[in-house]
Amino acid sequence: MSSLSTAISQLDALILRLQDGSILQNAPPKQTGTDRNQRTIDTDGENIPREKQGKKKKKEKKDKPQQPKKKGNEVQDVIQKAYLVVARVENVKAHPNSDKLIICQLDCGDHSRQIVAGLQQYVDVGTFEGSKVVCIINLKTAKLGGETSEGMILASSSDSKVYPIIPPSSATPGTLVYPEKLVDAPADASLCPKTLKGDMWRSIVPELSVSSEVCCYKGHQLVAGEHGPVTAPGFTMPHVTIN
């Protein structure tokens, strides 16, 4: 009985200890990963404050080395934005539904394009094929007589006379045409926008003229590079117009 009494006494003592929490107080803390001070135990056993959890380290932005800006010609006059080139008439035919229009297929050097011009009454379709002309090729594409026109052919006019402007015979298709000595920089096609605004072109046209058969802009000769000036034979002082 003494052993039973002893066991009962030990059991009572254990119950009392459970009731007053003394066993829990002496028990080792559970490894939940976070202590009462809100610190997290990492895999290496180090304590990390909870507030630092979940924050990703920001990657340091590396400054990209600045590339030097390419120096190019600056626009000093609106004429530099007009893409004027020498072109060769590869094929031409009268418009089937118009007595004024002709449909021209032009070789512009690095590409071909179609231009519809109001020259049917002023040129012989048969002889016009193979001739060289001066065109502006960055105007907005238009429809003339239902046909697509991707530019305009420059022509001189006075009273009832209209003749296409003639580039030098040595100038090849694609040669830039520009006013000589008007600006400091040479002609630069990169200055020409893909589409020249209509109001810009309308501001250029009144400044075009002919002096002693040589076409000019603001009094400066229009030249096809080193090949020389573009001309309007038979004209002295009429304005140059677009047809």
Subunit arrangement of the protein: single chain
How many beta-strand segments?
15
Order of helices and strands: HHEEEEEHEEEEEEHEEEE
N- and C-termini, Cα separation: 133 Å
Mean pLDDT: 80
Q: Give the uncertain stretches in residue-range form.
A: 33-45, 67-71
Give the strand content: 25-35%
Return the structural class.
alpha+beta
From the alpha carbons, calculate the radius of gyration and give it in angstroms.
Answer: 44 Å
Give the biggest beta sheet: 7 strands, antiparallel
The proportion of residues forming helix, as a percent range, comes to: 10-25%
How many helical elements? Answer: 4
Principal-axes shape call: elongated
